[in-house]
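From: lab user (bench 3)
To: helpdesk
Subject: output format question, protein + protoporphyrin IX containing FE

Hello, I'm new to running complex predictions and I'm not sure whether the block I got back is the full result or only part of it. Here's what I submitted:
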Amino acid sequence: MVVVVGIATLIILHSIFKNFVSHTKIKRAPCPFPVWPVLGNLPLLGKLPHLSLYKLSQKYGDVMELKLGSISTIVISSPNRAKEVLQEHDLVFATRPRSVVLDMFTYGGKDVAWAPYGDDWRQMRKLCTSELFTTKRLQASKKIRDEEFSCTMREIFEQCKDAKPINIKTMLHKTILNIMTQMLFTKRYFIEDGFYNNKHEQFNDFMTKLMHIGGTFNISDFVPYLKPFDLQGLLPQARKICMEMDQFFDKIIHDHMNEKRADGSKDLVDVLLSLPPMENSGDRLDDNKIKAMLVDMLLGGVESSNTAIEWAFVELLKKPKIMNKLQDELDHVVGHERVVDEDDIPQLEYLQAVVKETFRLHPPLTLLIPHENMQDCEVGGYHIPAKTRIFINAWAIHRHPSAYDNPWDFNPERFVGSEVDLKGTNFELLPFGCGRRMCAGLPLGLITVQMGLARLFHSFTWKLPLGENPQDIDMGEVFGVTTPKAISLQAIGIARLPLHIYASR
Ligand code: HEM
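Helpdesk reply: Thanks, we reran it on our side. This is the complete output you should expect:
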């Protein structure tokens, strides 16, 4: 009897002790104040969430837990903690939270970027690496990029003659969109007689709206019981965009199935149409999967590169010595009798440093794409329950004092001779993310930014319109799918190569 009572007492004590230990072990990350009823911390995000969250991290630390509406959200703001999430617990954090509007745009998450982690995502992601973004395919599309940048050079050259200011963002948008649409479906969207026009307004119109609505912070994603009320009126707009987009993509698919190109060349839609089905039905990949991939590539591929190039322009205008040094390198490696070629990039070390420094201070996706954890996990000693939303604040990480001296200063020299690359192995520089969900289009995005800058600064030197001072350039940002400059930059190009070079391209 005594033995039985003794054993029972030991069991009870053990379970009390275990509970006590597990309770004291569970430590939640600090939560900023105030937490409002219904909205939680949402009002703290303001118009520029990456900046507000950076400021909060100065007070609450590198791992914070916010209540956004009813959604628990962890914000990571240092390289070490990013390494824990994206490398040590890569698999646990490999899924994405749902978003009402992006679900509509991506045919219910049939794409890669917004798809939940699972077999469908794995297969689509494999397609990206084995079929769509291979080195061979990137090499094959070199001519497209070369011709598009040449076309842009000619346009700038014409405007140079009257010293006309050029809207850098609008000009690059046309160039990069043309590169993407040519690679995807062999069509240019802004060209007539060698110069751009706005002939394809419908396409341009829904692309602009897609970017805008896709990047809007939707309250329904954070306070799910408000979903039926759609307080911001996003759903009718999203439905209209989806309808127009769907018709547009249907026509592209239809044309591709019915017209074979005389030269036998294949664009990315041809490749997608030639792939076997993932399900056991049909004889090829489901149309919605193809369309969802097109959305990813148009949404992800155009604005991110454009945003980066515009910010580089701003920084180079503000620091003419850096612009001169970049141009000296270009002159030394390329000379004045030809334009820059993609094969020159490995020799252009200072250009690569300028690009890294631009991505550091101005990561186009300031909070990457949100991640979500599939299981409970611990980061920085804090417990993170399953299904928590994760924001990796790349904008804050890139300014972390543990990684950079004078982090607010634009100084490409810091990357000259440094081993830090953009491939997601250095957690102090993560503009393309890292791990399983890192950018699937990195090589294309990177070469577009490098070539864009190389071509534009080798062929022209740049100054602000008369009376404007570089130090007064407005540095305001707008938060959306990407974080571009709020007021687009206008600059005047001055030709710096012999005239026949512009004419011959
Ligand atoms: C300068 C250019 C670009 C930047 C800065 C950029 C940045 C990013 C970032 C930060 C992510 C999310 C990573 C994460 O959540 O951890 C991402 C994902 C992605 N990007 Fe890019 N990107 C660029 C260009 C492109 C291009 C050109 C394409 C394709 C044409 C592309 C396709 C994708 C896709 C499909 C994903 C989703 C990957 C997944 O969830 O598995 N991106 N990108």
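A quick orientation on your result: The two ends are 99 Å apart (CA to CA). Let us know if anything else is unclear.
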